Amino acid sequence: MNLEHILNRIPVLEIIGNKDRVISELIFDSRKAVEDALYVAVKGTVSDGHAFIASSIEKGATIIVCEDLPAELSEEITYIKVKDAAKTLGHLASNFYGNPSAQLNLIGITGTNGKTSTTTLLFDIFKTLGFKSALISTVEYRIGDEVIPSTHTTPDVIRLNQILAQAVEAGCEYAFMEVSSHGIHQHRTEGLQFKIAGFTNITHDHLDYHKTFEEYLKTKKRFFDELNSDAIAITNVDDKNGNVMLQNTKAKKKTYALKTMADFHGKIIEVDFNGMLLNFNGKEFWTTLTGKFNAYNLLLAYSVVVECGFHEDDILLAMSQLTRVNGRFETLKSDGGIFFVVDYAHTPDALENVLDSINEIRTKNERLITVFGCGGDRDTTKRPEMGKIATRKSTLAIITSDNPRTENPGDIIKEIEAGVEPQNFSKYTSIPDRREAIKMAIKFAEPKDIIVVAGKGHETYQEINGVKNHFDDKETIIELARLMSK
Fold this sequence. Notes:
By secondary structure, the chain is an alpha/beta fold. The protein has 15 helices and 24 strands. The strands form 4 sheets. Strands 9-8-7-10-6-11-12-13-14-15-16 form an 11-stranded mixed beta sheet, sandwiched between helices.
């Protein structure tokens, strides 16, 4: 691709050097520089890309996009000065890969909880409706039936455009992606054209990164602020910040809710561990998904598909065939009659939703045992809150390790224990070894009791001191339940 083409519609402050150049590769990591590459010097949260301009040139880069020009300029290099390199990178990536988002119906889902479930549900609904689609989620990236391992909830903007370009080439008409607050803040969605943006909810999370809830809220809101006037924004008005997302958007505004009046209104008619009977906009259907939080996820998915122009009856028929998302309220039952729920819940709100959903279903003759922990090197303020919720809403809570990363598991557990209310001191125990904690839960349980193992969901590893060790909650449950039933 030539330089003139990749700079199309991108504001540039100054160009120094040869403008008649062909670009072989677009990069922002100097280590990936090759002959005739265009290197974008991005000022990141950890390092400044300007410090690596020289090394990118040594490896063959011939075009440098930067905010600050180097003190010494080479006549062999073309320098392009811009106001914001991170924002510019998104538009460069979009141009370099042929603006793939404009050739797809791109749907982005943001919020604290429910992003993975909703995007995966949408992917499955459209597959049932006969459409080939792409999925970009925490669990995996998919192009039709091809599965690509996931590295980030929202990949970097170059990788993102690569995936979308592959989706266009593969004949996809729709693409569904999770839009994380990190991705928004770091401009990873810059230059993308979204047809629909959906908001699930916003609760306490990622304050290790955003520092304050207000900053976290503002970041999520920016996704909607930057939508084009021909896009559609759909928000959950049962969430107290749902309408905040729509305050400054140019997009067409739509709402959904279970509790209040909305464009898309849902109601739970019946619910048990096998599924729910739901009513969406006056029409009933059965789903094998269960729990109020899943009703919200389904309602948002339904709203999106309606706004894409499909008939309600076709949508509800497709939704009635959906199966549960990997690691999201996934249920297992042992030969001994113990019921297990594996869920990714790793925030106070998500854990509370799972436990509330179970408590609404169970008869109270069964005990509810919750095994959970909190991740290391992440927001520490949610730890006591999760300790309070788990012990308040369970018969027994077993506090254990999640992904301790570089932290001492014992220190994390103490911070969780600090939130346990005095009246619930007798309702918990702490076992740092996650396998032993699950084993203790099974040993304590009787037939018909319910064990929730929360925090890791789809993950198949446990990260300890920078090393990812194989650990799968479902696999561990099946193995231990089988051994202990003998």
